Amino acid sequence: MHIYLKKNKIIEKMRISGHLASQVLRKIKPYIISGITTAELDNICQNYIIQKQAISGCLGYHGFPSSTCISVNEISCHGIPSKKKKLNNGDIVNIDVTVIKNKYYADTSKMFIVGKTKKIAYELCKAAKNSLYITFPIIKPGLPINIIGRTIQKYIQKTPFSIVKEYCGHGIGLNFHEIPYILHYDHYNTIILKQGMIFTIEPIINAGTNEVFCMNDNWTICTKDHNLSAQYEHTILVTKNGCEILTKRKNEKIKRIYSN
Ligand code: MF3
Ligand code: CO
Ligand code: CO
């Protein structure tokens, strides 16, 4: 097993996949209102993906039944969209979009807030977002991979929140999930970042304990204490001297290219 280093022709394809995934999250935003079901949101995303001659990476993945993962409030990740699940004011919602375009995957997710929510929920979403964003200025060739996790951990330790340890970022390309795996906490690791690596970073941050469990549908991951959970995810290319955020949204307040 070796880590596949992507060259220009493939990077160009992954930029296209990344842009499409980012657009799904922009297009879905106006639909996130009280009363809509998560199945309806999933349908809108699926239609957009198909319209762009792409397919969902989630649909049928190990039997996953939908095009997106939609995880509301105490659901940490892998929520299955449902006709029975209506959004309410104050909900915090993660939509996780994976597309395949020209055989290449891109994977991204963000939090949405339905109407207005309580302070702690805003702060949790902000901490999850920042825990992803603070890794961008450190990513460059030569960086030991565990420093990404250490950076996230140091940041979250200063908040009242906790990091879920069971899920991690992952290499991505022709495969949905490939090496290297990117843990969101410090650990022993000898992998060194190299130019051409493409991987996701996708920290899941909990308001209470970091413990989670899998529900009876064998997919939905829920916090053990039923407190809130939030996640942000981007697909990131290691460049010659920094990184490029392949799933950056047009209106997102980050740089696309970091020279570090
Ligand atoms: N998109 C998730 C990730 O970030 C994986 C979802 S797998 C699915 O890696 F089958 F639930 F869609
Ligand atoms: Co991912
Ligand atoms: Co994802």
CATH architecture: Alpha-Beta Complex
Number of domains: 1
Q: What's the pLDDT, averaged over the residues?
A: 98
Largest sheet, described in full? 4 strands, antiparallel
Beta content comes to 25-35%
**Helix and strand element order:** HHEEEEEHHEEEEEEEEEEE
| Whole-angstrom Rg | 17 Å
Query: How many helical elements?
Result: 4
Low-confidence stretches: none
| Percentage of residues in helical conformation | 10-25%
Morphology call: globular
Keywords: Aminopeptidase, Hydrolase, Metal-binding, Protease
Domain Peptidase M24: 12-240
EC number: 3.4.11.18
Family: Belongs to the peptidase M24A family. Methionine aminopeptidase type 1 subfamily.
Overall description:
Helix 1 (8-28) crosses helix 2 (38-51) and helix 3 runs antiparallel to helix 4 (146-157). The chain is globular. The strands form five sheets. Strands 1, 2, 4 and 5 form a four-stranded antiparallel beta sheet that branches. The protein contains four helices and 16 strands. Helix content is 24%, strand content 26%. The chain has a single domain, classed as Creatine Amidinohydrolase. With 260 residues, the protein is α+β, with helices and mostly antiparallel strands. It has helices at 8-28, 38-51, 119-133, 146-157, and strands at residues 55-56, 68-72, 75-77, 92-101, 104-113, 162-163, 169-171, 178-182, 198-201, 204-206, 212-214, 221-223, 229-231, 234-238, 242-245, 257-259. 2-amino-4-trifluoromethylsulfanyl-butyric acid is lined by residues 58, 61-62, 64, 69, 78, 96, 98, 107, 202, 233. Its cofactor is Co(2+); Zn(2+); Mn(2+); Fe(2+). It comes from Buchnera aphidicola (Sarucallis kahawaluokalani). It catalyses: Release of N-terminal amino acids, preferentially methionine, from peptides and arylamides.
